[in-house]
Amino acid sequence: IEDLLTPETCVCRTDDGHLVEGLREASLETVVPRGSSDRVMVVLGEHAGKVGRILERQPERGRALVQLGRDAAAPVLPLPYDCICHYLGGGDDD
Predict the structure, then answer these.
(1) How distant, in Å, are the alpha carbons of 14, 25, 67 from that of 29?
(2) What is its main location (predicted)?
(3) Residues 62, 80: contact at Cβ < 8 Å?
(4) Which of 56, 93, 48 shows the shortest CA–CA distance to 76?
(5) pLDDT tens track for 37-90
(6) What is the pTM of this model?
(7) Contact status, residue 42 vs residue 68, Cβ threshold 8 Å
(8) Which CATH class is domain 39-86?
């Protein structure tokens, strides 16, 4: 997602660099990274906007165990895949 046009629509960039405008949430799919310790951002719920890392995937339950923040004592939460997305931003945002 590149930009939000309205609360219901956004602009997305495809893998080949093309911009697609006016997409609705129902047209989008959450990308959950496959690598170990990949960073994710919480996009829904009370922890929205926080960055963490995946400790464990639970595909049979459609969720992942995510540790928020960088501190080893940071909370670990079971979050549905729809509440998280792959995070590629800078390291100071957690």
Answers:
(1) 13, 8, 22
(2) nucleus
(3) yes
(4) 56
(5) 788 988 888 998 899 999 998 889 999 999 998 887 889 999 999 888 888 777
(6) 0.68
(7) yes
(8) mainly beta
